[in-house]
Amino acid sequence: MPKTWIPPDCNSVKINVDGALKGSELATGVVIRDFSGNVKACQIVYDGKWKGFDGAIEAEARAFLKGIELARDLQFQSIIIEGDSQLMVKYLTEATNSYPWRLRSLIVDCKSHLATFLNFSVRFTPRSVNTVLTFLQRKQ
């Protein structure tokens, strides 16, 4: 397991995403970097109040969707998207429809957007390497 951020190859961008839930406040963060580590885009979204169960996994699902949408909007063709939720990586990489109903639309949207890229990879990265929200909070 890597202990530091590993850059993508020169034909791809790497998207690191993270979702967080503090109390009932939900936030997502996205950083897109090239092979040199240069930030191509970044975004932090405060999604407001959360009510219900599974808030942490929904925050992670929203973060993946925001990252994929941002890369699509910027017309990147080859992406590697990483997050620190093993469960979300499993949902996005396995051919299954077995996930919580509350996440269904987010996961379906992620998968359909991913299919529009020429190349994509979805990977798990440890929390110690995936410091997206910390990075973005320093940029504000």
TrEMBL record:
Residues 16-132 form the RNase H type-1 domain. This is RNase H type-1 domain-containing protein. One of its GO terms (molecular function) is RNA-DNA hybrid ribonuclease activity. InterPro entries: RNase_H-like, RNase_H-like_dom_plant, RNaseH-like_sf, RNaseH_domain, RNaseH_sf.
